[in-house]
Amino acid sequence: MTKCLRRIFLFLIYAFLYAPIIVLIVFSFNEGQTRGAWEGFSLRWYQSLVENEEILAALKNTLSIAFLATLIGTIIGTFGTLGVYYFGRRTRLLMNAINQVIVLNPDIVTAIGFMALFGFFQLIPGYLTILLAHIAFVIPYVVLSIVPRLQQMPRELPEAAMDLGATPAQTLRYVILPFLKSGIISGALMGFTMSIDDFVITFFNTGNGVETVSTMVYSMARRGINPEVNALSTLLFVAMFALLFLTNWRAVKGEEVQ
Q: Under a CB-based contact definition with an 8 Å cutoff, are residues 80 and 210 in contact?
């Protein structure tokens, strides 16, 4: 009986979490424009999405910023974490605390801070300012994902590799980075998702003519959400779900091989 109740409770939790996504996906195939009434199956909004240059331009900006921010942020976060790891205990605790403050800091405070910083350096708001801001908030998530994995790595492992004749570069490439691979991938995926999802920081640091999906949807909300957004959101969800599934599947396969 207890086991049955646990399953029901778990089912209700997941049903509550995924119900909005399921409704969104279903109504992306709705023939009509209303969000509360089903008027028949249709792919008209997907076809319309492909022909909407405004949405495609916003999607292009969103994906390119997310990709570049994740790539640069992952590289900086990985090597920064490795550097801090070999500091003293107090320095590591201080750096971890600073990193967590950035993650826990309200987005509105971070957004206004970046806006003031870019204004101080007289940077024109636009693609570059959004990218720099996204790189900055991606890095802490990468660090948080790598630190637990790095703490599991024996400190003697790199030393043993170099004692056997490996150079520092070879030790990094063939010993340390493969050991941290799962943490790096998890951090990169989290950073990529956070970048695509971000609105507040992007909104305060964007300029004229530069729109992302989040800022575009916000501007649409004031005049009525276009059903094409449902189709776009469905495609983004499917893409992220496939990416996560592939990553987890490869991780499971790797554990089976080991």
A: no
β-strand partners of 30: 41
pTM of the full predicted structure?
A: 0.85
Can you give the length of the chain in residues?
258
The stretches of the chain forming alpha helices (DSSP H) are 2-27, 44-51, 53-85, 89-104, 107-120, 127-152, 156-163, 168-171, 177-179, 181-197, 200-205, 213-221, 228-257
Task: Please answer whether residues 45 and 28 qualify as being in contact, where contact means their C-beta atoms are separated by less than 8 angstroms.
Answer: yes
Phi, psi of 216 (to 5 degrees): -70, -45
Helix (H/G/I), strand (E/B), else coil: 157: helix
CA distance 258 to 91: 35
Q: How far apart are the first and last CA of the chain?
A: 38
Paired tokens of 109 = 């405070």
The answer to whether 222 and 173 have CB atoms below 8 angstroms apart is: no
The two structure tokens encoding residue 173: 């490439």
**How many degrees, rounded to 5, is the angle at CA 228 between CA 227 and CA 230?**
70
Q: What would the two tokens of residue 233 be?
A: 């959101």
Q: Rounding to the nearest 10 degrees, give the CA dihedral for residues 134, 135, 140, 144.
A: 100
**Cα–Cα distance for residue pair 151/170, rounded to 1 Å:** 21
Q: What is the pLDDT of residues 91-147, one digit of tens each?
A: 888 888 888 888 888 889 999 999 999 999 999 999 999 999 999 999 999 999 999
Q: Which of 231, 184, 201, 197 is nearest to 129 (CA)?
A: 201
Angle between helices 181-197 and 127-152 (to 10 degrees): 150
Beta bridge partner(s), residue 7:
none
